[in-house]
User: Fold these one by one.
Assistant:
Number 1:
Amino acid sequence: MKLTVDVQRQFANGPLIQAALEVDLDHFGITMLFGPSGCGKTTLLRLISGLERPDGGQISLDGTAWFRGSRELPAHRRRVGYVFQEGALFPHLSVATNIAFGLGRDTAQSGRVAELIRRVGLAGLEHRRPGELSGGQKQRVALARALAPKPRLVLLDEPFASLDRPAAEQLRHELRAMLKADGIPALLVTHDRAEALSLGDRMLRMEAGRIVEEGRPEDVLTGLAAELDNSGTESVVRARVVGRREGLLCLEVGSVLLFAPDPGGDFSQARLCIRSEGVALERLDTQPMSARNHLSARIVELDVRGALTRVRLDCGFPLESLVTTWACRDLNLCVGDSITALVKATAIQVIPVDEDA
Amino acid sequence: MNPAAPWMDWSAAALSVRLALSAVALLVPLGIALAWPLAYGRFRGKEVLEAALLMPLVLPPTVLGFYLLQSFGPRSPLGQAWGFVTGGGTLVFSFSGLLIATLLINLPFFLQPLVASLGSVDRRLLEASSTLGHGRISTYLRVALPLSWRGLLAGAILAFAHGMGEFGVVLMVGGNLPGRTRTLSIALFDQVQAFDMEAAHHTAFALLSFAFLVLLSTAWLRAREPR
């Protein structure tokens, strides 16, 4: 089954949302909806779930219209789960009754609720009220509640935004397994790069109400400014951990080895964000090629932007370097040249990824 | 002073209590049904409905009583229908007529706190319920209403208290038949007319303390409403 969305919505003092996307509902996968705050990510989720009505366009599931013209399938009949930023748990109901809320009476009696409580690690807290739970526990209940009726798709609106960092990382780590156990595909809104990279199978990048790019998270984020106040960009690549020593990780990217600071934790796959200002270029490598993070590369493109030049490299994987334009002239860089790229270990951010992502 | 006279007109007190309790028993289901469109509905003519339901708050009770008397009369369609259904019963000068009148005049007292409570329920909770497969009615009964119990209780108490003391409508529709339509507030009027000031003091003080206790309890309920 395929969910096809092509909708417009205009708010009085917001951007015009005009977004088109498709979600495959037959295969498990997490699609990240990534973009700056206020770009319309949450509104798009609300339009898909039926909580908000589009001004125009259409939403359909395999040709069955969910929204077209004046016809609209109400939210409660779409079988689309929704996890709100701060849980939105029913304060008058216990953990177990919150989770059972979307289940019919006969299903609620079956083991589904107990199974979910066990799976989200809340055994023993069944009879607590939401007011007695921590932020992380609340979001676990919210997730279990959304998954209980086995929806076709689950939409998550910045589900970790209200949590402190350790709790967010812990839950982020568990989220994938929870979704995967039922094979429910998910669309997750975030403005956090690391979150997008650690969780996403696919990424939709949104800007000012439109989806401007779609692809694998590492491809979409490569070349994108790392921070808004920073002219530097990043290269994002997949890597495999091949060794760890003295706080450093040895990572294999394609056939190239890179060393980077170890963020800790047990993982064997990662995505690396390499800041382009941390990649220096040298004509002749004074050190042997085996030296740490000295990569032999070929220049693919030179992008002169005033005093700074972006050098796109191929070193077995795509890499970007940001150098001053005068250094670029001193080195007499030309497209096609072979060169040595020196990657500072501290310019590499390692983001652990689950095995199957 | 007449030493043989009772401390209070107990049959009037019993009638007042019975009238107010019956009115509240009918008001709760009716008000719950009417509160939904008022709190969450978006439809044409909502303001008209709101204004119509709130009218008893500002209308002189005698005006409402006058129109009810007109429409309850044995020759009016409503009066005839009532006579047909009950086998010759009348609405005028009877407990049933009194009850309908009390119901109507107390509707805004019940609705206002309930609608205010419903309006303050976190919108996202209602949305969460709909994404979990519950339609509007189910969401109303399972989420909005349980979270508005304080408003519901406050409304019921206010309506009960107001029902105990209503004067104008009761006099117009029910007249002043001892044991049948003479409530406490009408008994007080009679006592003053008859210069039975001691009995009047008892009745008035009973109604006064009752009203104060009721308002105190609703204020207490509202102060504990979570925000």
Number 2:
Amino acid sequence: MSRKTALYQTHLDLGGKMVDFAGFSLPVQYSGIMEEHRAVRTAAGLFDVSHMGEFMFRGKDAESALNALLTNDIRGMRDGQVRYSLLPNERGGAVDDVLVYREREDRFWLVVNGANVAKDAEWIKSRLRGADFFDWSDDMSQIALQGPAAESILRTLTDERNIPEAYYTYVPHADVKGFDVCISRTGYTGEDGFELYFMNAVAEQVYNLVYEAGKPFGLLPCGLGARDTLRLEAGMPLYGHELDEDIPVNETGLGFAVKVSKENFVGKDAIAAHVPEYARVGARVKERGIVRENCDVYCGDEIVGYSTSGTHSPTMGYGICMLRLKRGFADKELFADVRGRRVALEIVPLPFYKRK
Amino acid sequence: MKQYTKTHEWVEVASDGTAYVGISKFAADELGEIVFVDLPEEGQKVAAGESFCEIESVKAVAEVNSPVSGTICKVNDALADSPELLSGGGEWICAVTLSEPVGELMDEAAYEASLN
């Protein structure tokens, strides 16, 4: 039995086609993946991402306590800053990928993947030393307002100073038409945009405020389908695909978030000792068709990797995928095995799509 | 007159006895935007209830089961460049020279009723 987010009824009212995802019943689409995708690239889209988890860390040593569990270095973050990190295991794989929010010196937040909330909470509680841990996931909702019109939409709902100026910064308590909303300038689409956090009790009201304010700008409600095509075009990893417990973090192309030089942290020795054998690369499909996840990739008769995610790119109009590919094969002729059909691939730089 | 399978394909036998095969509008709607059809080949044998073709949408890949048994005598090549033609449910995928009569399938009214 999957759980419902506080916006479940809203999705039904908007004609959302519901599926089970990360233990929640969430819309995979409303009007259609392509149309929703285009709305985010050209105007705005609104996503319910309440399956995501929110953990709070409190105490004067919260920074160092948390830093010992992360691959990125969170020392020196300013209040209101956000930073991407992996949550490593002892073997140098990833328990999860997370966003770290610094509210103030003695208060940090982690936003974690919905499917991993329980696992992460256990993992963190058994290793955290020197800070208090609170799991707010069940009480909080999150929506993502994404697209070039996102800022204009938000400006109709809140004072200008409540809108974080820089990417990866946030305002913990913004007054949005009387509601207490955390506004974060972050996202998972490759567009400008915001992620908004608030308590479940006000979820429907806040969602509807943003939805109504966005309509004149061309905003569409968007489901998980468009979320996946958008993040894939933007070359962003998805836990369980490009990342997992057994993929060494230094083979994921996320070096900017892995600071092996910092003081001791979980998995540091394993990460430092590991010589990468694979890389995360992007590929376009050179013929018609889609290479989805878990297709073997061949160079001649040799299997040299596999696809971790793949879709039809609505923006480019051809198939794109991410591969876990053995090093040294990116410039070779590669094929994916799609249910027995050999499909030619061409390695291209990530991201596939970059906003202008 | 179109006849339908439980797995959302249809077959329509033309006056010359050739059986045209497609997918229902319901199936197309469920798939969403169709971006690729892995078309079968002329001369390929098909058996009722067995997969002979794959359709890819952004959302999913679906196997198409043949409603009839026989040999494919014509393929709708327009689908190679315009797979979205299938969206309305009216477009055919291939034509089959039957090796045995069409089995028991649903007429349109029974099929529509089965969707509810």
Number 3:
Amino acid sequence: MTYFDNNVQQLKYEVLSEVGKLAFENELTPEKLMGVANTVIPDGNPRMRCCIYKERAIVNERVKMALGGNAKNPNVVEVLEIACDECPVDGIQVTQACRGCIAHRCMNACPRQAITVVDRHAVIDKTKCVECGRCVEACSYSAIIKQRRPCVNACKADALTIDKETKKAKIKEEKCISCGACVYRCPFGAIMDKSFITKAIRMLVESRNNEVYKVYAIVAPAFASQYPNIPQITTEKVVTAIKKLGFHSVIEAALGADMVAYSEADELVEKGFLTSSCCPAFVRYIKKNYPDLVENISHNPSPMMQMAKVIKELDPYSKVVFFGPCIAKKAEAHQEDVSQYVDCVLTFEEMQALFNAKGIDLVSMEETPLDNASYFGRIFARSGGLTEAVAEALKEKDIPKEEFDCNPLVCNGLSECRTALLKAGKGKLAENFIEGMACDGGCIGGPACLNHSTKDRTFVDNYGKKAVERTIGDAISIFENESKQ
Amino acid sequence: MMNVYVCIGSSCHQKSSYSIMKELKSLIDENGLEDKVSLNSAFCLGHCAEGVTMKIDEDIITGVGLGNIEDVFRNRILKVIR
């Protein structure tokens, strides 16, 4: 059974599973760790690259990442240099498909007269070419292509560059927001996120079946769209599987999202203009590129942090692990204000690897209910969800339009965020609330989602509709009803 | 101070624990016991199949529902306090 839509994730999953197995059995010895490469890449023909020795060498780099990566590098995203295929950076090129036609639309389209025809084949003078791409559009045979390195192309934060000498991909740390778009897009899996699975496993083992302390799992609302092509795997079965890993309780981050929707509405009314704070990549993007707009970032914690805080207040000795589609959340959890509540962040890829490590077969699991939040908390997982929830919060709080008229802008993906922030910086933004999601589609498009499908949004909305609580107020009423400390 | 916990885990939630909590709060307020009873939520007190589960100080009570919450309040909270 394959959970992923590409082989890079499959390979990562196999490495994480092997390391996970060793961690559960308390066998993270150098000898056993060195054996992982031979298990994942057995003798025989190479799986993907030139030879099994290169493949094993790369697996070893992945094992290092599975163990937490380079501690001296604060970024949770790292380039695995030996895995980088040094994809060509030749930009615009005329391919063999050029038939040396008579029309020469390419020549005529070029604003710099960079194209000539030599021996019935179009030739681009690279000294004149400005890579505008008009010739690419003009050719009737699509014979001219624009070659972009997938990593550079994926990065909308302008944080990926190519080392001039080695031709390897290099992350510009001052620009990188750890969104992980490059991790997902690199066709050779040469960029990877650090994993903290061994830390999570140690927490579980040392809890001694939740006797010494309880370990709670918070799951992101994107949870609902992870297995769209395997209907036998219901969210309730995945909850049972998480408990079988050793967690005491599974709780929806969506309940934290419900709480955030209410506080976001309050803060909006108070301040008049806000940018959302639940997407850590978006927050970092503002901090690194638009320092003047930092004061407009909502002071509310993210749903992950909010939910973790609730749990720690209810059970101060507990350990809290978050499961999500997000790589930037790993960076968020390293922040001082967040790390006091969230002990470890894992991705859904890593969750699936842990199931594999413990031999847990999802299909055969019994069902355990998961129902803490309202529809509005659950839809945070997709673009536009947060905005809908804030609008609902304003409605539930009976805030009249005269007092505050919410005029939101939903920014789907980092490029849209950039456009909005540029306008806001110049004081030309008409809207008073920016929902910024760095990933396309919102969290359901996250780099560590098991799959990326057009069905995902529907899955999230349908899951939202299954929630017992119909309003945000009802979902968070439990906290209102508690005695004040 | 009597510490009362109502489980707000998923299974108990589906058995109306949120409403039970609301009801308990009303009962506590109506009887003027805010200073004597601390009402708290808890994530999973176990006994999920026999929910809703509550805990009063060190005692676990299972099988709580909207139908018997008043009795539970009277017998296990009101009587004990007074």
